[in-house]
Specification:
6-stranded antiparallel β-barrel
């Protein structure tokens, strides 16, 4: 089990869905670093790609919670197993859907990106 993200590529605010909304029955994960699959929201994918987001190209994402916000969302460090695949889409303001199998369990809104040119 991974204990810490040493050099995150970004920080994001993560909104975990409730079980009634199709999210995790056990609530937000408690592991030090949560690993799942993720899809970047781009344009009109919902309308153009059948079965989206489950049918979209998925990346392996790593999240480490660093703070719980007043509204219940979480500020998290973000990284990817294959960072280079995420970099073209990783910009402040981008949205990432966090998935467990075909279910969307959370959405992440990217704030800070830590990529040096």
């Amino acid at each position: 089990m991974m204990e810490k993200i040493e050099d995150p590529v970004a920080e994001a605010v993560v909104f975990w869905r409730s079980a009634d909304e199709g999210g995790r029955r056990s609530g937000p994960p408690t592991a030090p670093v949560y690993m799942a699959t993720a899809v970047f929201v781009q344009g009109d994918d919902r309308e153009l790609q059948p079965g989206w987001p489950a049918s979209a190209d998925q990346l392996s994402i790593l999240l480490e919670e660093i703070a719980v916000r007043e509204d219940g969302s979480r500020t998290c460090k973000v990284d990817f197993l294959v960072r280079d695949l995420a970099l073209p889409y990783l910009v402040p303001g981008s949205e990432i859907l966090i998935m467990e199998g075909p279910r969307v369990v959370a959405s992440a809104h990217v704030g800070t990106v830590h990529v040096e040119d």
